[in-house]
Amino acid sequence: MSTSSRFAVAVHVLTLMAWSEDEPLKSEQLAESVNTNTVVIRRMLCELAEAKLVVSQPGSMGGSRLSRNPAEITLLDVYHAVECPGVFSLHRQPASQACPVGMSIESVLGSVFAETNSAVEHVLAGITVRDVMLRLKPANGKSRIHTRAAKLPGEMSPDQAQSIRKRMRSGTIAKEH
Predict the structure, then answer these.
(1) How many CB atoms lie within 10 A of CB 4?
(2) Could you report the per-residue pLDDT of 119-131, keeping only the tens digit for each?
(3) What phi, psi does 63 have (nearest 5°)?
């Protein structure tokens, strides 16, 4: 029996969006980070948008970003958006009523599963996307990750652009355009 990784992928996507702040991210960028197909990401983005956790804008300058502050999005919100309720489920077929275990196992497990689900939901309700982001170790000592693996030809890095903007504001360099 396999378990779903949809929750982990959704938390990964939302955490990357939180880390990139207000910069919209393309599904290709998200898929590259998660190491999955863009179709998987696009489908998940639709579910996250339905749950009002992300907003998306189509087009060449578009992308997806969080719909609200990452400190306001709990992992329980994410769980409800992408997973079916319940950590465990009962047998697909009813147990044999002729068996002394089979005649009562569903009611016993039902109460155990209810307790388990309640505990999981309680934990997830207390952790936000911001909390997850703060638990990450900065890559190479930097406080932000780069959301695009490689620059386009002639494109400068965010650090280079910020340095040039600072120098332009201070009058150290003249504006070229």
Answers:
(1) 10
(2) 999 999 999 999 9
(3) 150, -170
Structural domain count of the chain: 1
- Domain, as residue range, for 139: 6-89+99-170
Q: Largest alpha-carbon pair distance within the chain? A: 88
Residues whose CB falls within 8 Å of the CB of residue 29, separated by 6 or more in sequence, listed in order: 16, 63, 147, 148
DSSP-derived letter for residue 36 is: S
User: How is residue 126 annotated by DSSP?
Assistant: T
Burial of 43 (0-12, 13-18, 19+ CB in 10 A): middle
d(CA 169, CA 161): 12
Q: Please write the tens of the pLDDT for every residue from 67-104.
A: 999 999 999 999 999 998 888 888 888 899 999 999 99
Residue with tokens 């388990």: 116
Encoded tokens for 41? 């990401």
Q: Pick from 64, 66, 47, 115: which is nearest to 87 by CA?
A: 115
What is the number of other CB atoms lying within 10 angstroms of the CB of residue 30? 26
Closest to 164 in 3D by CA, of 175, 149, 148: 175
Residue 112, domain member (yes or no): yes
- CATH (domain of 32): 1.10.10.10
> What does the block give as tokens for 37?
């197909």
